[in-house]
Structures are given as C-alpha cells and as structure tokens.
Amino acid sequence: MMSHSHSNIEQSILKAEAICQSAGVKLTAKRKNVLIILLHSEVPLSAYDLAEEYRGHFKESLPAMSVYRMLDFLTQENLAHKLTSTNKYIGCSHITCDHQHEIPQFLICDKCQNVSEIGVKKDIIKALNQSVKRVNFSLSSQQLELHGMCEACQSIKNKKQAKKN
Ligand SMILES: [Zn+2]
Ligand SMILES: [Zn+2]
Ligand SMILES: [Zn+2]
Predict the structure, then answer these.
(1) What confidence score (pLDDT) does residue 1 get?
(2) Which residues neighbour ligand 2 (ion) by CB within 5 Å?
(3) Among the four given CATH numbers 1.10.10.60, 1.10.760.10, 1.10.10.10, 1.10.3720.10, the one describing domain 6-164
(4) Among 13, 69, 94, 114, fewest CB within 10 Å belongs to which?
(5) pTM as predicted
(6) Ligand 2 centroid – CA 93 distance (Å)
(7) Measured in angstroms, how far is the CA atom of residue 141 from the centroid of ligand 1?
C-alpha cells in the first residue's frame, strides 16, 4: 500500500470537515486529532494504541470510553474503518475521493500489517447478498476483510528465496 503523504492528510482533513458539515455533524478538535493519527499511521491501530499515540502527539490522555466514542463517530461517517478481524482501526483512504463510499474490501497483509482499502463492485455485493439470503443468513456487516501478503512483502520473500538458491 502507498503510504499517505502529509499533503494528502491535510487534504483529507479539509475534506473530512466538509463531509461532516454537510452531514450536520461536528468534527471536533479531538475527533480531528484522532483522525490525523489514524491517517498518519502506516498500520491499523487498536483503541489502546490510539490512546497511546494521542498522548504522545497531543500531550493529553483520553479516557478509553471517549476514544471508543470518537472511533464510533469516525467509522459512522466513513472517515475511518474498523477491521473486525483484527479489532483495529484505520483511516479511510478514500476521503478525498468524489465517488460515493462503497462497501469496503480490505486487503490485510499479515506480515507488515499494511491494509489496502478497495471498493467492491455493486454487482459482486449483490451476488454475495443473494447467496447469503438463500441460506437465510442475516448479515451484520458487508465489509470484506481478506488476509494475505502485500506486494512489498512478497518481493522480500522472493528475494530471500532467490538468495537461498
Ligand atoms: Zn473508506
Ligand atoms: Zn476512492
Ligand atoms: Zn506486507
């Protein structure tokens, strides 16, 4: 995954403010700081990691409850996402995009923890929903989380193998 550059983060924050304004909700200073931390991070963060980072960056400690509330807010507005398979959070990588936020599909590298966020095509989701409906299953989330190895980690692995030979 490409890491976010600083200008991207600034743009994302500006866009996040606009998104919240048009949704009639407020991106308070603390919520914004939490989002900044998530966007800066190369890897998904647990609520605990986030509280630690917050204390380090902003010299203020947040009660766990308020960390969770802020994360709930950010995920509700699609500015951040919760990876249920790892119980960690990441900033949305499509904040500055103009397209509608689709149901996210996450490619999670189990080696370096990097996460790529991809939108799933509508007809794939539709087909998925149909097969789920066929067995009368009720989905609580449509988010897809796929685990594997990212491109960078694969090439490291390949190089190591080449050395061995
Ligand atoms: Zn997203
Ligand atoms: Zn996008
Ligand atoms: Zn990786």
Answers:
(1) 39
(2) 94, 97
(3) 1.10.10.10
(4) 69
(5) 0.87
(6) 7
(7) 14
